[in-house]
Amino acid sequence: MTAASIEAAVEKAGLQPLTPDAARHFEIYLELLLKWNARLNLTAIREPDGILERHFLECIFAAQQLPSGIGTLLDFGSGGGFPGIPFAICQPEIQVTLGESQSKKAAFLREVVRTLNLPNVYVFNGRVEALNQKFAAVALRAVDKMPEACRAAEPKIAPEGHFILFVTRDSTPSLAAEFDQIIWAAPLPIPNSDQRTLLIGRRA
Fold first, then answer.
1. What is the per-residue pLDDT across 118-163, written as a single tens digit (0 to 9) for each?
2. What CATH number is attached to the domain comprising 62?
3. I want to staple 134 with a disulfide (CB 3.0 to 4.6 A). Which of 14, 139, 158, 197 is the partner?
4. Which residues, including other chains, have CB under 8 Å from residue 172's CB and lie 6 or more apart?
């Protein structure tokens, strides 16, 4: 899949255009995902079109919804790099930390960062709870046991920082109610999905 075809898919989805450099970064990122996925099972989706639709476009959409002024962001349980790497590609002014406890997946993330030459990305290989840092935003997407992961991630949000969650429509009310110190915006439906939504809140 070429950078041009990725740009065309972004346009078809009604998203803001990517820069040529960003589109090329996504092309290389896709190649690395396909190469490493056979060994690490980074994503259950194996086809380039599926990865573009389910992972890239969803994360690009979210990157374009991020509140302005975010300087640092933690991708909690990054796995294959979603959403942290797309965020870093689309918003290079944000310093992104990819938190990943599995060493093999962390090695993949470091390879992506090295190959794409992303100076705004740091890979933390360990349990994110051990990070002695707070962030202007914390994002979670497709992590195991989402409510428990959110409870572990919430303390890493700086005062007046943002919580960015990729959730299903059905799970949104209970998650939002649990974190009553977060002021939530209205959930944003993710394009081309009946169930998935983007939930963004700010610490009061």
1. 999 999 999 888 898 999 999 999 777 888 999 999 999 999 999 9
2. 3.40.50.150
3. 158
4. 187, 197, 199
